[in-house]
Amino acid sequence: MSSNPVPQNKYLLFTVGAIGTFMATLDGSILNVALPTISNDFAVSISMISWVVVSYSLTLISLMLLFGVWVDKKGYFFAYRFGYILFIIGSAMCALSNSYEFLVFSRVIQAIGTAMFAAIGPGMVTSVFGEKERGKGIGLMVMMVAGGFMVGPPLGGFLLNYFDWPALFVINIPIGFIGLFMTYKFFKSMPKPSSARKLKIEGALSISIALVSTTFCMSQINSYPLTDYHVWGLGLLAVCMFGLFFYFESKPKTALIGLQIFSNRQFTSSIGAMLFMFMALSGISILIPFYLETIKGYAPNQVGLFLTIFPIMMFVFAPLSGRLSDKIGFQQLTIIGLLVLIGGMYFLSELTVDSTQNYIILSFVLLGMGVGIFNTPNSSALMGSVTEEHRAVTSSILGTTRNIGMSVGVAFATALFTYLQTQNSYLGDESVIFVESYATVIYCSIGIATISLLFSFIRGQKKVSEVTN
User: Fold this and answer.
1) 222, 415 Cβ separation under 8 angstroms
2) CA-only gyration radius of the chain, Å
3) How many other β-carbons are positioned within 10 Å of the β-carbon of residue 253?
4) How many CB atoms lie within 10 A of CB 378?
5) Disulfide check for 233: which of 229, 287, 428, 462 has CB 3.0–4.6 Å away?
6) What is the pLDDT of residues 161-183, one digit of tens each?
7) Which phi and psi (to 5°) does residue 350 adopt?
8) What is the Cα–Cα distance from 421 to 430, expressed in whole angstroms?
9) What's the CA gap between 39 and 33, in Å, rounded?
10) Residue 225 burial (C-beta neighbours within 10 Å; 0-12, 13-18, 19+)
């Protein structure tokens, strides 16, 4: 694919991808507000209801690399067309769910559609905007991510005040049809892939199974002892699949992207920084609505307003950080962003039953600023570390890494939180037990975010425009 095939239509083409990104993040942020309500309706625990989130992420992890390779052969029009269709079907199934199990299954169908277009979003943006405006383009896409998160909570709270939770999925359907219409109208102008490379599926399939097995294994630790086959069996499968992946990647005939890419410090450090940042963030984010609703007693619409603060900060700072990264490079910005994020996490660790609204708001402001400053230059650094030939695959690696971090973070945090609640049961008061357990989870998340900070330090400093593909 050429680096900038249709510059005169770049904003129309960007809009097609942006709608998909907006729709996916809108769905996730709306759902966070509704998790306590859905948990009560189906009479399931926090650790069980987390599977409504984890099943979605696991599906993305298992398919994004495969779809990234596939789209490299089939083209962006193919990915967005079928992505929107499957997401619309999955959203309708979620809205019609009358059991916890069917809702989880429907989320899997929904995630298959999301994986189609989420796998290649950054690659499409880079192709449309070109090298010199990569930071700008990715910054605009991050704005759409923030926009989905920003609209989701208040919209979810509003809908829950007047309708049942299935309405939160119905809202996706008209947005999906708009994206589908625009895909057919504008995306046919994108040229078909010119690559004659063989479709190399072995590496993508093995790493997908390895990542899903690893994430699923971690989620089972809270339910089974380490000696149980549910845990060690999945762990063994993951090790074998990782071994197969490295074997396939060492062979030129089967290599998806090649092991030599991991010797690229910019590529490896960007992946590592992103992975651990999302692990730290998602681990605490899933518990925040429960704190606001069950401990502070806020109504769903009030919870939605609180959760809007985080994406508003992302919406403001992500494009500014992206444009600045095109001029000064990415290392300083990613480090500053992570330090601000860690500051917000520390404020959250000090939450009590009596914490004021202003204190909670300040915590969310710091979290949103930190992610907004960090995410765009880090993504731009990753996309600028590879050749055009590997851009679609690298785009799917970016999305896969993000979802690995999110699913592992959620699985780890909910398992640890459930364990800590049992250990802290002697405190008696349920609110105190919740706060004490949550604080420990946040301290662990701060440690994970520090690992992300270390990756940003070792990456080095370059202007994105100076990166040699």
Assistant:
1) yes
2) 21
3) 8
4) 30
5) 229
6) 888 888 888 888 888 888 888 78
7) -95, 5
8) 9
9) 11
10) exposed
Quote the distance between the C-alpha of residue 86 and its chain's center.
19
* Cα 45 to the center of its chain, rounded Å: 23
Q: Give every CB contact of residue 25 below 8 A, 6+ residues apart in sequence.
A: 144, 145, 146, 147, 148, 149, 152
Tokens read off for 113: 């559609």
Contacts with 357 (C-beta within 8 Å, 6 or more apart), sequence order: none
Distance CA 49, CA 391 (A): 36
**Cβ neighbourhood burial of 56 (10 Å; 0-12, 13-18, 19+):** buried
Q: Give me the amino acid identity at 271.
A: I
C-alpha to C-alpha distance for 162 and 306, rounded to whole angstroms: 19
Residue 374 neighbours by CB under 8 Å, 6+ apart: 273, 277, 321, 333, 334, 336, 337, 338, 341
8-state DSSP, 293? I
CA dist 394 and 386 (Å) reads: 8
From 67, 61, 101, select the one nearest 83 (Cα to Cα).
67
Query: Structure tokens of 443?
Result: 């301290």
Lowest mean pLDDT among 74-78, 101-105, 298-302, 308-312: 74-78
Alpha helices per DSSP H over 198-264: 202-220, 229-249
Q: What are the tens digits of pLDDT across the range 115-150?
A: 877 666 666 666 666 666 666 666 677 667 667 766
DSSP codes joined into one string, 170-205: HTHHHHHHHHHHHHHHHGGGSPPP--------HHHH
Nearest Cα neighbor of 137 from 151, 148, 147, 123 is: 123
Crossing angle of helices 172-186 and 10-42, rounded to 10°: 160
What is the rounded distance in angstroms from the CA atom of residue 158 to the CA atom of residue 32? 13
As assigned by CATH, the class of the 7-200+256-466 domain is mainly alpha
Total Cβ atoms within 10 A of residue 29:
28
Closest CA to 169 of 76, 251, 97, 83: 97
Query: CA quadruple 443, 446, 347, 287: dihedral positive or negative?
Result: negative
Distance CA 90, CA 55 (A): 13
Structure tokens at 117: 């277009």
Nearest to 406 by CA among 274, 292, 303: 274
Instruction: Say if CB 418 and CB 290 are below 8 A apart.
Output: no
- Distance between CA atoms of 164 and 346, rounded to whole angstroms? 35
Contact 400, 65 (CB under 8 A): yes
Q: Which distant-in-sequence residues (6+ apart) come within 8 Å of 139 by Cβ? A: 318, 319, 320, 321, 322, 323, 376
Residue extents of the structural domains in the chain: 7-200+256-466, 201-255
Distance CA 58, CA 66 (A): 13
- pTM beyond 0.85: no
